[in-house]
Specification:
33% of the residues lie in helices and 21% in strands. The chain has 448 residues and is an alpha/beta fold. The strands form three sheets. A nine-stranded mixed sheet has the order 7-8-6-9-10-11-12-13-14, sandwiched between helices. Strands 15-16-20-17-18-19 form a six-stranded mixed sheet, with helices on both faces. It has a five-stranded mixed sheet with strand order 1-5-4-3-2. Helix 13 links the parallel strand 17 and strand 18. Helix 1 packs across helix 3 and helix 4 packs across helix 11. The termini are far apart. The mean pLDDT is 93.
């Protein structure tokens, strides 16, 4: 954020510079963890429920912070403090002002399922030609997006920004900060229904992004999604998917025994044979999103093919492990009905006996129990030999799975039952919302 000086930051957020400072001091990244501060960074002292960042201002200065953004000045502190009424709002305003200084393409990615996979795939493609910056980990909210924008430097030629929300109005704010030049919508699914009510609400909230895009922006949507397929916008619109009506589409889809995909991507007269080194049918859409961004930003066929082939799975998102006894698909990162069903579909395409280990899907609102029962029934009807569940709502999944469903009162109890239930050669999917902490189940399966 070297173009952003102390004086400009203060003007952007209406704050008051205090202590000993130089107005022309250039700022680095916006950081919220004093332990991660590097020389030149702007430390934002958030006041949380359990931790008050103001108590770590001295530590941030010791690590080289150029300035600290704060709502109060610690007693005796004489180093540069940018004093504001609300740190969160100031962070947003500073990042928004910095974004207005930049001229590079910014690709904004949202959706109920597959945001991170699409982000990583798009980045892998663009990296074949451009020096890019992408969202780190899952920093995709009202704190993470400003932090990502603040990391863009002069050497970057494009930025790939994941944008996640859970309520109305949040995407409007995030897009006002990021100002995407290219928008990518993955799927409109059953996520955050506690706040967004239904899929139409999800669609409405996600597409708030378009309000802060210029007319010459480009919007890329999953044309196989019924709501996105009908999207109308003032920007140029391209659809990607498997259907013939999509401008960017996949054909000749083939899966190997590990669930890795090969297919042909078509766009006008361009025909690209691609290899997708990841598990799951949903990865076809990530590859299509990556190719679509490559097409509109002028990459060659060879660059797009190479980028897709270089994709790497992130964390516990459909990570495949051959343990020597079973094939484990570790997808503990997050879950909603759409992503779980997609995982089940992908699992069933692998040869062998199939076991689903499923837990609660959070923030689904009033119909949560019915949605969990439906997922259990879906797994049983797809042919799962066992549907093993834990969690308060996991009991509804087991109920929906009928005779193949088993519910355990705790993760430990489920783990204890695994040696007698899992057979050599099994294909095992582990999936639940992150808050269920199913990671130990996946680790236990590796040791059977």
């Amino acid at each position: 954020m070297r173009k952003m000086t102390l004086a400009r930051a203060a003007a952007a957020c209406g704050g008051r510079l205090c202590g000993e400072f130089h107005e022309n001091t250039a700022l680095g990244r916006i950081m919220i963890d004093s332990r991660a501060v590097e020389p030149g960074d702007l430390f934002a002292a958030y006041r949380g429920e359990r931790v008050d960042g103001h108590n770590y201002i001295a530590a941030a200065f010791e690590r080289g912070a150029a300035c600290c953004l704060a709502e109060r000045i610690p007693e005796g502190e004489t180093r540069p403090i940018l004093l504001v009424e609300n740190v969160q709002r100031a962070v947003e305003q500073i990042a928004e002002a910095y974004r207005q200084m930049l001229t590079i393409p910014v690709i904004g990615i949202t959706g109920s399922v597959g945001k991170t996979s699409a982000k990583e795939m798009i980045a892998a493609v663009l990296e074949q030609r451009l020096h890019i910056l992408k969202t780190d980990k899952n920093l995709n909210n009202q704190i993470g997006v400003p932090m990502t924008i603040s990391r863009i430097e002069e050497e970057h030629q494009a930025a790939v920004v994941e944008m996640g929300i859970s309520g109305f109005g949040e995407m409007r704010l995030l897009s006002q900060i990021a100002r995407p030049t290219v928008a990518v919508f993955t799927i409109i699914g059953h996520a955050h229904l506690e706040f967004l009510h239904d899929r139409q609400g999800v669609f409405q909230a996600k597409t708030e992004m378009l309000e802060n895009m210029d007319e010459d922006g480009i919007v890329l949507v999953n044309g196989d999604d019924d709501l996105l397929r009908g999207l109308s916008c003032r920007q140029k619109l391209l659809r990607f998917g498997l259907g013939e009506e999509n401008e960017v589409r996949a054909a000749d889809v083939r899966l190997d025994e590990r669930g890795h995909i090969s297919c042909t991507i078509r766009y006008g007269e361009r025909v690209l044979p691609v290899q997708i080194p990841a598990f799951g049918q949903h990865m076809i859409y990530a590859a299509l999103a990556g190719a679509a961004v490559g097409f509109v930003l002028g990459l060659t066929d060879e660059e797009i093919i190479s980028g897709i082939a270089r994709y790497e799975t992130v964390g516990r998102r459909s990570a495949v492990t051959e343990t020597g006894k079973i094939t484990l698909i570790d997808d503990c990162y997050n879950a909603n009905p759409d992503s779980v069903k997609c995982g089940i579909d992908s699992l069933m395409k692998l040869p062998g006996r199939h076991v689903c280990i499923l837990g609660d899907m959070l923030e689904l609102g009033e119909e949560e129990e019915a949605m969990h029962r439906d997922v259990g029934a879906y797994a049983a009807q797809a042919g799962a030999a066992l549907v093993l569940c834990s969690g308060r709502l996991g009991s509804a999944i087991a109920e929906g799975a009928g005779s193949v469903g088993k519910w355990y009162p705790s993760v430990d109890a489920l783990i204890g039952a695994l040696p007698e239930l899992i057979r050599p050669g099994d294909r095992v999917l582990v999936k639940a919302s992150r808050g269920m902490r199913f990671d130990p189940i996946a680790e236990a399966l590796k040791c059977l």
